[in-house]
Amino acid sequence: MLPVHVAVLCSFLSAFAALGANRHPALLARLAFPLLGLAGLAAAYAGLDTLLHGRVLTLVLPLGLPWLHWQMYLDPLAGVFLAIIGTVLVAVSLYGPGYVREYRPKRDSLAALGGFTGLFVVGMLLVVVAGDAFMFMVAWELMSLSSYFLVAFQHEHAANRRAAFLYLLMAHAGGLLILFAYGVLAAHAGGFSFAAMRAASIPAPWASVAFALAFVGFGMKAGLVPLHAWLPEAHPVAPSHVSALMSGVMLKVAVYGFVRVAFDLLGHQIQAGWGISALLVGSITALLGVLYASVQSDLKRLLAYSSIENVGMIFIALGLALLFLGTGHATLGYLALVAGLYHACNHALFKGLLFLGAGAVLQQSHERDLERMGGLLRRMPWTGLMMLVGCLSIASLPPFNGFVSEWLTLQAALQGVVLDNGVLRILVPIAAAMLALTAALAAATFVKAYGVAFLGQPRGRHVRHAREADRGMRGAMALLALLCLALGVLPTWFIGLLDAVPRSLFGTGLPFAVAEGWLWLTPSGAARASYSAPLVLLAIGLAWLVAWLVLHPHRGQAVRRGAPWDCGFGPLNSRMQYTAAAFAMPIRRIFRPVWRIDEQLERTVDSASGRVTGLRHSLTIGDRAWTLLYEPLGRWVLLAARRVSRMQTGNIRGYLAYSFFTLLFLLWLIS
Amino acid sequence: MADQLILEWLLALLQTLLFAAGAPLFAGWVKRLKCGLQNRRGPSLLQPYRDLWKLMRKQVVLAEEASPLFRAAPYVVFAATALAASTIPLIAVHLPTGAIADVIVLVGFLGLARFFMALAAMDVGTAFGGMGASREMTVSSLAEPAMLMAIFTLTMTAHSTNLSHAMDQLIADGLVLRPSFMFALMGLLLVALAECGRIPVDNPATHLELTMIHEAMLLEYSGRHLALMEWAAQLKLAIYAVLIANIFIPWGVATRLTPDYLAMGLLAIVAKLALLGMALALAETVLAKMRLFRVPAFLNLAFLLALLGMLSHVILEVGA
Fold first, then answer.
1. Which residue in A49, A350, B179, B268 is a FRET match for A195, CA 20 to 30 A apart?
2. Is A166 an 8 Å CB contact of chain B?
3. B318: nearest Cα among B191, B158, B175, B205
């Protein structure tokens, strides 16, 4: 039995074990989560093993239809994503037992939670190892459907039901497009297996059609703007460990699907135009995602919007890769592809970490609203420290992992001058500038999120009584935080692993990236650019040490504590602090047209004295995608339905006539 | 070979120390010139050193609510800024530190320093800190793309993001008037004014609460923490000044590690910085601080200039 089989089997067993959790809640913590952890370990092992040895594994399973057996295909590309799923799964399995204590067995069905989590994981694992379109789609639907139930887990709130329905709708619209994309490919390949599709030569227009369908279909699941509107509704309302899986891992599965179709199945006929569209959509997604994230005051919603931003960054890198591959600059294309995959891994780690941290805060304080948080670093020092690592990573700051992938993407973009087309030569640096703007705004967003939630003074009653999360939850966060640091400090080693992906897809890899040893990262030769993250970490440590040794008092001089400066007006209180809305106000004002902002200021004036006795400020920030795309589309669908409903006469003779004429039409069609 | 390597590392270390030691002098020079231009008697050039020395010996007073992050932040800010300084060729190219961290990492270091400074500002929970942090992060998020754009023009011209290599290349190219560099220079000048908190974006001399950006973040600091923060700010100003001076007027930077070349390099950078300081003092005297919400327009101009530089490079200079 292979490790990947163990992973799938363990997740299945975990789903079964959880079925009894309503009667015996301990089953969830004692059996279901450990099984998930085992599945995670096995998946991570299978993924890393494939990457290390660059092996490709093909199996025909005794499942599926009699004439159409399912095929399993495990290559380094699948290995990367298996490793992502496995790693986050291990963290979630450590975290889960502590977190689900929040749910009471009487009110919330723990069996549903554990069962669907297991099935969700099975779905994701099978998508990644599927070797034919048939198994891929079955697994894809399993993943979508089971995660629907997880989004709808707390269905007593109407908003959650609405979010879940929207999610289901979008998942299926996307699934349909993916099905069409595979349909186009299968029609030319004469079979459903990926091997046949890869070998088939498809006329260029049809290849573009398949790419466009796959791009939109997978983009819907990955949350590309303007198809993202379901994501910030659905991800935050799921239980936090499931949010971590959805944002950290499921979006990556969508990225996997896109990479599989664009770089593998259509890999030998990539066109530059695909790269341009992916680059444009990616840039817009990244920028709008971070702008929306920056104004959110719900912590989990902020994280969900930031996932959209990061998916945009991944697509910028993948778009660059397609562009370079489509114009014959293969080495640069591999570099950008590796940068995109690197960012996919990074985002899984830090977004998983941040969602788990937000979950710990939610469990302890029952607050998701930043405006009622504050001072949590003193109440939850470990969670605070881990979240700090997560925020530094997601803000792309050295020496953490987010910086490495941004650096690689910029390095690839900087070589856009090799392109022959003048317009493209301009487009690529502008995309790089968008990437820089996105990263800078992400830093502002996470200063806000961390500063308002963890620093300052508590703004609400609940936060004041928060306690540190339990040991398993802290361990899960520590695991992800350490991995964030490890991927930031040892990028060369990790890029050596990822290099197996272009090697297996295209036959060659990056010639220079790891040529100078583990200490140096030189994506296109040492003279062009180099980065040594271990030495950077060492240097920061040394500089810190020197400054501290020189300055820190050896004389045992105690630090005096005093009241902060209050301008002489008397003691400060927590209501005087900057709020999350106030922090984001300059950004909101500068980029005003991006949002649909409804800001109201009501004054209560005392009629006798004319003095203002009360002020009420309300701020609602809406997503423009709704007014520009979804609502018109919804109206149009309703209108069309109303037109069609005229056929419904309620008269049996009418219906018989319909059947008769349909029959006649069909007969005419086949004769 | 080994001797050469040791020499290079030694030189990199000395250069960084010189950078850190010289930064207050540059700040003092600008201040003194500014006072002169405004008909005031300026403080001595050594005043910044005296201030730092005084602060370092003073007892630290922390706010009651301050968390460990507040105490760690000055060290992180200073360490990150010092590392950023260490990657810039001050008097000589062939820096081994340039290979550890290229110019994108330099921007990353400055970002790291800013991140911790803004977090520390929010730590105590006063309105000033939050205000300063919010404004600083907004201004810098608009300035950073402009800065990267300007720097990309340089790196694309020199085919390297390693600052040492790039400068070496530019010196080897000799005197070439590149239109792209003119635009990039103008863009980078505006970015430097914004990032270092100078007039017209922020006023380093003010403590008027509604106009503060940088100072608002440091309000709760005292003693050695404040000294480190102030020093880091002076270092940051010097970093931008040296970047501008050595990228756009690279001549004089030592390309060989012999005493005469190094002496020449030292002389050149002192002269360049003295001139740049004069320009800064003059600009700060004739310009007025602008309203906060005019700053985005200012930075958009910087971005557009940098973009024009990039475009003119891509259109006019590639392949030419």
1. A49
2. no
3. B158
